[in-house]
Amino acid sequence: MVSNIVKLIGGPHQSWQRKANCMGVDPDLFFPERGSSTREAKEVCRGCVVREECLEYAVTYGEKFGIWGGLSERERRKIRRRRTLEAKAAVAG
Prior knowledge:
globular; mainly alpha; 93 residues; single chain; 4 helices
């Protein structure tokens, strides 16, 4: 997964991807069919040294599919929603 992503987006700012646990793992594991288990993909992410960078990338760039940083799209959507509410509160407050 990561090696394909590095080729697509490249750049030195994405060098964290080369350190990811998912290097060399079948990308299909991180993009399970709807209703399928995400447990194995999340297990790969669990001890990854770049998990936070991966998650931040997915949240920042609105990745809609797959497991990124150990979280599903639904879980990442909650983070984005919370950040949006916090930003609005900071502006209003």
